[in-house]
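Troubleshooting log. The previous run stalled partway through. Resubmitting the same two chains, unchanged.
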Amino acid sequence: MKYAQQFLGSLYRNLTGLHGSLAYTAQVKATLTTQGILLTAASFGTVGNNVTFTVTPGATAGAETVSVTGSAITVQVETGVSSITQVATALQASTAAVALAVTTSTGAGTVATHAVLSLAGGVNAGVTSNIIGVSSAAVTGTGEITLTLDRKWPFHLWTKCMMKSSTPQDLIPQVESSSLVTGQTTKIQLLTGATPTEPTSDCSLYVGIWFRDSSTTK
Amino acid sequence: MANNYKQQFFYSFTKGLVALQGPIVLGATTTGVTSSSINGASAARTGTGEITVTFQDLFQALVFADAMLLSATARDLVPQIKSVDLVAKTVVINLLTGATPTDPLNGMTLYVNLFFRASSINP
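Second attempt completed without errors. Output:
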């Protein structure tokens, strides 16, 4: 049982506020840099860490071939002769490869064969709650956070959120849905205009949720 | 005041909850903040579209924040916290147009509501 502190006056009986912050970890795409070639996963999150890249011999410079099996990208080159630009061009021309990873050339020179390498560093968006009375918080969609409270309340009065970001972000919190009387959840969206949008860097949300903890309206 | 029955308290799970609330009247760019009426804190313009609230007391955590603009002329500005420094006793608020800090119009008011936990015990 939590000990509720006494505070200001109100016209509501047993007015109770839940306050605290949400720490939001921004999603990151997995990447791999090898031999002057940068592969960036097409999708955000850990799914990109499953993408692999292999360079095998057997092609002629200027006629590199790309094959994709599942999450594995393989490019055939002429070892030590195919240039970075030629290999990057071949990868960029492969629809199947582009669906897994976007290729950028980051240097000059030639490409040699190498064994399987995996993209790495992909991170899923995540959120942790520091709000007493909120039992869990989860990212449940693009720019969408679902809070689950540890109990039901008789009457929900209001919810307010304010964003904190060391790098300014065009994101405005908005309550998407609230089921805090019949259920125990509320959803908050982060909007750019009217579009739910993922933060581009780690940020926080200061949240206040207010209830009347009484069946008596006044 | 209307003839309503006023409850004496509201409740919080936060121990030692302290609220700093009040309006900050914003001036022209060169003027910065015209006046601040937040008990226990002062406010100043510290950059383009940037207002720094400096509070007098040491708190353990900022647990809730809200800021809302009053403007007779509609303005595309959204308050967003840039940083919180409990040692320096500051909360820096950006006024953003999109993701760009932007100065307010002369005479706009920023209503600020900051809740702190004064106790080191949580909860």
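Takeaways: The first strand of chain A starts at residue 5 and ends at 6. The two ends of chain A are 25 Å apart (CA to CA).
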